[in-house]
Write a structure and sequence with these properties.
Order of helices and strands: EEEEEEEEEEE
Helix content: under 10%
Strand content: over 45%
Number of strands: 11
Shape: globular
Largest sheet: 7 strands, mixed
Structural class: mainly beta
Mean pLDDT: 96
Distance between the termini: 37 Å
């Protein structure tokens, strides 16, 4: 199983970034996907999730600014991030869960990418 995140990592406050996550080694359509982030000294937190039918869930802190989407044909997950703020700076991870679709609890996810750093400067 491989989840590989990618995306340009630095932006000024108010800017936008798109992260991608390429998945392989498992039946992508049978899993629900999520984006998580972890800042220095902080616990990992859920950002957004998407089910196989396209149902999405967002953390309150990113609602209206972030959009999660996926391309089932390419087994690729995306996170479009707009109106970024310095508090959004963190390492961002994509993850997969087989049973806990819609959950923002990182402990319910079994497959993880290596993470990609996002830095938002003021």
């Amino acid at each position: 199983v491989q989840l590989v995140e990618s995306g340009v990592g630095s932006v000024q406050a108010g800017g936008s970034l798109t992260l991608s996550c390429s998945a392989s080694g498992f039946t992508y359509s049978s899993y629900c996907m999520g984006w998580f982030r972890q800042g220095p000294g902080k616990e990992r937190e859920g950002v957004a999730t998407i089910d196989s039918d396209g149902t999405t869930t967002y953390a309150e802190s990113v609602k209206g600014r972030f959009t999660i989407s996926q391309d089932d044909a390419d087994n690729t997950l995306y996170l479009q991030m707009n109106s970024l703020q310095p508090e959004d700076s963190a390492t961002y991870y994509c993850a997969a869960t087989g049973f806990f679709c819609g959950s923002l609890d990182y402990r319910r996810y079994i497959y993880w990418g290596q993470g990609t750093q996002v830095t938002v400067s003021s």
